[in-house]
Design a protein that fits this description.
71% helix, mainly alpha, 2 domains
């Protein structure tokens, strides 16, 4: 992480066995370069502390104007959860987490995807065909806003 070559640091961010402290130091030094490489680092995803550090950095980067970081974090979360479910067995389901942050398009897409996979509400699926994904996303956004109010 202290190497002069950015490419060498990027390789360490993406494949090194980083600690949470090292990840924060890397972000302080190389900001989005560090996050963009570390978000796929399996060493960080293996434990909740590493995932939490990546999540905190994603939201910090988003607040600084790197709008794609939250979506990248969430997409990577989905990929890691499906390929390594054993790493997440102690975590509560994402749909049950209370989060004071506003829902993003990735959140809504994840909800729609969960409904598709579970096939819990055939009426929603038929409504989705009739109204389209945009209409469903609008309804789910409204539901998310109502839930956050209460």
């Amino acid at each position: 992480m202290t190497h002069e070559d950015r490419a060498a640091r990027a390789a360490a961010y993406s494949n090194g066995a980083l600690t949470v402290g090292q990840m924060h130091a890397a972000y302080a030094k190389d900001s989005e370069l560090a996050f963009n490489q570390a978000v796929s680092n399996k060493w960080l995803w293996r434990k909740a502390e590493g995932r939490d550090a990546l999540r905190a950095i994603a939201w910090d980067a988003d607040e600084r104007g790197a709008d794609f970081t939250i979506n990248l974090y969430r997409l990577t979360t989905d990929r890691m959860m499906s390929s390594h479910p054993e790493w997440f067995k102690e975590d509560e389901p994402i749909s049950c987490r209370s989060d004071s942050r506003a829902a993003t398009k990735a959140d809504i897409a994840a909800i729609v995807s969960q409904v598709d996979k579970a096939r819990l509400a055939p009426e929603i699926m038929s409504l989705r065909k009739a109204v389209g994904t945009t209409g469903i996303l609008s309804v789910l956004t409204l539901i998310a806003v109502i839930i956050q109010i209460f």
